[in-house]
Write a structure and sequence with these properties.
mainly alpha; Arc Repressor Mutant, subunit A; 2 domains; DNA-binding; TetR_CgmR_C
Amino acid sequence: MARPPHARDKVLRAFVELLLEGERGATLDAVAARAGVSKGGLLYHFPSRDALADAVLERFLEVTASDLEAMRTAPEGAARHFVRTSWQVDHELDPIYRATLRLAQAGHQDALAAIDDLHRSWLDQLVTEVGDPAVARTIMLIGDGLYHQTSMPGSWSRETFADALPDLLAQVDRLTESLP
């Protein structure tokens, strides 16, 4: 039988969920209530909201390091991997990315720097593979557009773009095959 999640993990997960609903609503009281712990239990693990934000950033850095390594070592190449995985809004990167983005949008400078570093790293890997910064940016925009469309509420985007991935990967292949 699986053990129930540790209180620290429950609190962090609750904070991420609340950030996704809106940064202002992610108060310590709301986090404790969502996690099903007392405020004292929350404060035992995270003595402040800043400590919670720091834990989100720590998790973000862990998940993004894994994502960047997977991109770097993908047998299909970094460009195809980036576009193919941009579709995966159910991946563990998605909620922690969006939570970090919410912190950045609220003015959290370390979150903003972490988001910038991730985007720069994705682009650097694409440039390293394809050798042409303009082509790398185009590939990144294809992946970002796909992510944006699949993360939209409602069913239109998923229904409209459900079969688009093979075509987009073919476009990536055309872009990269045309390079010297």
